[in-house]
Amino acid sequence: MTLRARNPFRIYGTDLAPGALLAAKLVALVFATQGLWRLTDPFVPYVSVFDHVGDPVRFRHILSGIWIAAALALFVNLWPRIACGVLGGAIGVALLSSDAYRTNNLTYTAVVFLLIALSTRTTVFSILRWQLVVLYGFAAANKLFDRGWRNGSFFQSWNSLQGYGHIYKTVGDLFPGRSFSAGASWGVIAVEFLLMFLFAVPRLVPLGALGVIAYHSSLLFLTGSTFTMFWYALVATAIALLWPTAEPPAATVDSGRAQTTLRLGDLGRAFTWRRGAVSLAIGATRFTGTEALLRIVALQPIVYGLVYFLLASPHDPNRRWGALIAFAGVATGLLLRYRQSAVRTLSRA
Amino acid sequence: VSTGNKLRVAAVGALFALQCGVGIWQHLGSTRYFAWAPNDYLMTYNLTASVNGHALTPAQIGERYRLSLAALVSARAQRDIGLASSMRYVWEDPPAEVKHRIRRVEATYPPAERAQVQLEYQLDAGPLQHWRWPQ
Is the pTM for the entire model greater than 0.90? Predict the structure, then answer.
């Protein structure tokens, strides 16, 4: 292993899929930035063994120490598979040891680390998409079985307590009874079942991944909350599913300022660079012009790292700008996919 | 396929089976632990507790049960959605999980130090409900 392989911005050249390694690093970055690495001491544990761990402060310090060591290893690409397993395992132990610590978003974070640790380049796509089938299937079914969701009373009362509650009430009052809230509830249930379906069909997974980003970013935009790790971990999963290449693609750029910045900003050596008219080769497919430039930006790991870090770092921020960036990413992703399909159709004709 | 890969696939299968099993099992009861039901409930509540006749402060109750007892429900919101004026705090999981936590915490104290607990709550702004511990 060379010093270059220890570059924290690097995502290629390990035995993990590059998109999955990027996702793991992004989630670990947020966890570290927000101080979540402190984990917890045992409190009303789900497994009785945690009633007998001795000094609770020492338990937490040991767990935190293990988490930090694994995160450092992950960032420098040292045994990244084992590091992901330890990160997920440490969070899992914390979840099982404390009822006050357990949340769905931290559970999902632990599960994603564990699944990435257990994945290979060939299985990662199937493993992550099936995890999302399970997640959205249960989330939608739970809402469907709940009377408060079916009649809109949950949606009405929960939204009324948010910062935008007075606007929600004004809009809701335009409709008879709870019909606005009931309609919105059923809309959420339908979206979650739709996401489950999209992830169950391999060729629809890219649409599902863009849908996940759009859905959770709309919640972020509306509420201003990332729901602790949910937005970060789910968007990172979507990025892993959308990552199109296992090797650094070949990018060609000219000497213009913007393109030189792109080349110099590639701290993770995510491309092999050449000089010439702008183009990007991913496998056998070659893109040119604006399409190539947009894809070069989208395949820069440092772009995601920067957005995640800035979004996670302030203590009391207005995080809605993150949702706007995500919406722009989804729109660009849809545009590029639509163009690519159109070009394929034209070339077949 | 190498033995390592087979083991990994088996571990992934076990993880999925565990999630599905726990999710279905939780739906048979009133809690939703590890069941992928994030923030699906709105329980507004008030919680009081006393030990040997001495009332605990909200800070002491929050620390005892590790509940976030910052006053979250405004008077306007109470009025808008028809909450009782005593409703102060918010919990976004099923009410059974708060009760379960209180019972488990109290079981860790010796009998002389156990609290008398009163919980008033509304689920999704529904009817006002009362719960006491010990019952």
Answer: yes
